[in-house]
Amino acid sequence: MVDDSLNDAVGPEEQDEGAALGRSIRDARRAKGWTLEEAGRAAGIGRSTLSKIENNQTRPSFDIVRRLTQALEMSTPQLFLQSGQRGISGRRDYTPKGQGEMKDTPTYLHELLCPELTSKRMLPYIATIKARDVSEFENWIRHSGEEFMYVISGELTFISEHYRPLTMKAGDSLYYDSGMGHGCISTSEEDARVLWVSLE
Fold first, then answer.
1. What gap in Å lies between CA 52 and CA 42, rounded to an integer?
2. d(CA 189, CA 174)
3. Which among 100, 6, 103, 1 has a CA at the least distance from the CA of 53?
4. In sequence order, what E strands does 46-189 have?
């Protein structure tokens, strides 16, 4: 088994976010009752590499994070948001229409935009809301940071733990604290599509 290349030099500025990512992956692995070896095998990476990620001893590539989240069925795309690199400017990434990085979950189909830049402070993606009833969510979706969402097409209901359900249609937008439990369900005949931007 050949691992993707990793950047083993983790600077102090990345420690906090790297530790949070490692804890999230460890918690998801333990929730499935998997050993390091079992989780590594499912994701196609080595046991030692996974151990280093969980203990914030290395900075994983985007592809490794993607494989781990898929293998461990981690639903939040926020895990693809990694800390920015200081002192770097003039970067750019381009995603042609319909060619983003696809991530399917039981309730949403996400198309991650500009995925080649793994170190960025915001995560833009387009989501198709497959869920039709709140019972389809095992738990509230919640993670650190804030989010902006814009309804591209269809209609949906935004449900959160502190507010009444909010009906939204094409052209409507919303900004909210993503640490607040939340979720969306489509209410139109076609699945609603939204543009989401997650901010750390």
1. 17
2. 22
3. 6
4. 101-104, 108-112, 122-129, 146-153, 155-160, 166-169, 173-177, 182-186
| Pairwise CA distance, residues 54 & 63, whole Å | 16
> What gap in Å lies between CA 119 and CA 141, rounded to an integer?
23
Amino acid at 176: Y
Contact assessment for residue 5 and residue 62, using Cβ atoms and an 8 Å cutoff: no
Report the largest interatomic distance among the alpha carbons of the chain, rounded to a whole angstrom: 50
Contact 98, 123 (CB under 8 A): no
In this prediction, residue 11 carries a pLDDT of 44
Decide if 179 contacts 145 (C-beta within 8 A): yes
Q: Return the sign of the alpha-carbon dihedral for residues 32, 37, 42, 44.
A: positive
The packing angle between helices 36-43 and 62-71, to 10°, is 110
- How far is Cα 112 from Cα 110, in angstroms, rounded to an integer? 6
Q: What single-letter DSSP state applies at residue 7?
A: B
Number of C-beta neighbours around residue 193 at 10 A: 19
Record the pTM.
Answer: 0.61
Question: Could you report the per-residue pLDDT of 12-37, keeping only the tens digit for each?
Answer: 444 556 777 888 888 889 988 999 99
Give the domains, in start order, of the chain with CATH numbers: 12-74 (1.10.260.40), 101-199 (2.60.120.10)
